[in-house]
DNA sequence: CCTGATAGG
DNA sequence: CCTACCAGG
């Protein structure tokens, strides 16, 4: 099963440029999209692309956040959000269940300038923990794909020193990654397969040719529950796929 | 003296496209610009173009309205507005005095959907009358150039029937044109020289190729006080000058 | 530097 | 449709 996550930074802008992800990467069977920035009723035919089951989950605030789940085969069920209206009103999480696999697509909150929203973000992370635990209690193995808006360690961004204390690299959010990947035992497969390789990023700022110079951050992940680890055949980031300030991350499960 | 008026619909957009009016029409010695939509401090070098005396008068509300007066020779003095803060806070009028000539550049208010702002507009027109009367009491002859946002008569727009009761063709504003050009005796030189010629417009909506099909309105004028009439050598509209949804109107005075 | 929302035209 | 603004990233 080929699953891919992409923060599209506005699906309408991507569509206008003819860079829709399913056209660009035809082998993918499940797409988790973040920052769609549109309701289904704003995008016409794009809401139900030919050959896909599509589910759109949007923020209340127009043009803000929003996620989508597209799959070639229909999921057994789809869960919107984390079960907490404080987070679910921002359209950040969609879970598709396929057999014993739960595919969770998520757009974690940005902690913002001066860490203004770090409390909200850590609350979201805690709610995500509970959500994942609930899925596992249902006997499901989980893969959590999306834009975590967190660079875990110094190796995960090009300028760790300069970004000490900046949104996405705050002690509090990094500590949650430690907890999630350490204490809770979820697996950052990509880093496990490239333990010491720098320069592997999924996001670059739009200014100053950062992407061309590969001054980026790895903030998009596909992490799996421990019991899914043995099914992971492949995991990749796709820096050559353009159309957003993020690039896709794909995982192949057997 | 070659004087030209142009509603630029955002001077920054015009500059970005390299369509600055003084580059396009080098013979012009005085430019009255409307809808500049920028303060002098937002436009860098453009605020004081080489070889020009420039005066910018902006609305309080950012990106809204705004007029400019540029001239090859320095005016004896410049007057900002009409002397009424209700209108002057919207950056709509600049007057440059050159010898015994007062060049008044004006951006008349739009009367808006449903005539929502017709009272404001007619108040502006009344204040403009007083302003012009004041200039004449000072012994000045006046030319009032700009976007009046009024089509005077049916001949002045392509679709008079369909626009009966629409902003720019409301009875109240047309009546003010009648008063200005009839009772008060100011002269619409362009119409006097083309009394029965339809299809002479200065503004076209951006939708549906209206300009290519010449579905437009004549809402930009250069009108003169009766005592200036004998000095008018030429008056033209310039539908070939692109860069805005309006085209320039020029007048040549001896 | 991008996205999308919004006001104003 | 097109110019600006603005929030958010």
Number of helices of chain A: 7
- Uncertain spans of chain A: none
Largest sheet of chain A: 6 strands, mixed
Helix content of chain A: 10-25%
**DSSP, total strands of chain A:** 14
Question: What's the overall average pLDDT of chain A, rounded?
Answer: 97
Oligomer: homodimer
SSE sequence of chain A, one letter per element: EHHEEEEHEEHEHHEHEEEEE
Portion of residues in beta strands of chain A equals 25-35%
Strands of the widest sheet of chain A, in order across it, are: 3-4-2-1-14-13
Radius of gyration of chain A: 17 Å
N- to C-terminal separation of chain A?
6 Å
Overall 3D shape of chain A? globular
Indicate the structural class of chain A.
alpha+beta
Description:
2 copies of one chain form a homodimer. In chain A, a hairpin with a 2-residue loop joins strand 6 and strand 7 (101-107). With 254 residues, chain A is of the alpha+beta class. Chain A is built from 7 helices and 14 strands. In chain A, the strands form 3 sheets. Chain A has a 6-stranded mixed β-sheet with strand order 3-4-2-1-14-13, with no helix packed on it. A 6-stranded mixed β-sheet of chain A has the order 5-6-7-8-12-9. Helix content of chain A is 22%, strand content 26%. The chains hardly touch.
């Amino acid at each position: 099963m080929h699953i891919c996550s992409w923060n599209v930074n506005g699906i309408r802008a991507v569509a206008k440029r003819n860079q829709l992800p399913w056209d660009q990467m035809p082998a993918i069977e499940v797409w988790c999209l973040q920052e769609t920035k549109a309701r289904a009723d704003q995008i016409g035919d794009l809401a139900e692309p030919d050959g896909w089951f599509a589910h759109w989950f949007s923020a209340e605030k127009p043009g803000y956040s929003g996620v989508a789940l597209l799959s070639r085969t229909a999921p057994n069920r789809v869960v919107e959000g984390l079960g907490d209206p404080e987070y679910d009103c921002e359209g950040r999480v969609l879970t598709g269940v396929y057999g014993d696999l739960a595919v969770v697509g998520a757009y974690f909150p940005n902690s913002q300038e001066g860490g203004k929203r770090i409390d909200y973000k850590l609350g979201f992370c805690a709610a995500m923990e509970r959500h994942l635990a609930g899925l596992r209690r249902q006997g499901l193995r989980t893969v959590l794909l999306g834009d975590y808006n967190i660079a875990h360690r110094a190796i995960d961004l090009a300028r760790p020193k300069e970004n000490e204390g900046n949104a996405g690299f705050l002690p509090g959010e990094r500590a949650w990654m430690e907890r999630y990947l350490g204490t809770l035992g979820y697996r950052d497969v990509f880093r496990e397969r490239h333990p010491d390789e720098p320069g592997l990023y999924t996001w670059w700022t739009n200014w100053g040719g950062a992407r061309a110079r590969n001054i980026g951050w790895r903030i998009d992940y596909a992490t799996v529950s421990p019991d899914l680890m043995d099914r992971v055949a492949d995991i990749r980031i796709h820096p050559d796929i353009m159309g957003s300030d993020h690039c896709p991350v794909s995982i192949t499960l057997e």
